[in-house]
Amino acid sequence: MTVIESGPFAPLSRSAIRHAMSDSSYQQLGDLSIYESVASTNDQLWQRLEKGLNTPAVCLSEHQTAGRGRRGDQWQSPPAGNLYLSLFWPFPANTLQNGLSIAIGIGLINTLKAHGISDLQLKWPNDILVNRHKLAGILVESRFGNQHNTVIGVGLNFKLPTATRDKIQQPTTSLQQLCTEVPCRNELAGHLIQNMIETLTLFQARGLQDFVPLWSQYDALHNATIQLISDDVTQTVKAQGIDENGALRYEHQNQLHTLSNSHVSIRFAS
User: Catalytic site residues?
Assistant: First the structure.
């Protein structure tokens, strides 16, 4: 008989995560690996690909020494019981990936809502916020070849030590701060992985069309005055939702523009 250790901060467990997933989702994975510490869970999956292993796979770690976010920013990854999770997915070579982080973000919000976490919003293109405080981030990386290989990294704050919060250059929050009863980390990891697989399968078949209509109910930037920051240039604009390809729409000097470059930093202006 297998004993599955439970509790919100129990060590990551392959058997416990597997137990939280449906058979059909788990059977799509060629590998589910858990580490005590790695440089980056995304990098672990790219290294797996370099060895010729190109089936869907998941990597989790208790700690990252070189975790990264969008624009190459460091993702603070202390061994504090958070969730650092990456999933490798081999799309067909002709798959358009516009808006993939939006589809993944909506899926993650739905999973968190099912665990009783409310007031969740998405800040374009890849942050999950609660009251403008960052709870989770998504990093999508792609490489092209005979397949359109993609790794999606997710960092979810279960608890953040004060020393870690002090290093982060934006307001943050954690499940420990938001929840009276913090969800079981292994169970939530299993549900997140399953949801990501289901989201990727739908996205591969239908693109973003099923997700665009849902954006307005989760849009953290809805009609907000924001700053677009690129190198030394800052523009103050008004957010206007997204287009059918997942690009950010914004108004500047009475003209409507779109932004698809995720390397631009976005900040609330007030």
Answer: 70, 134, 267
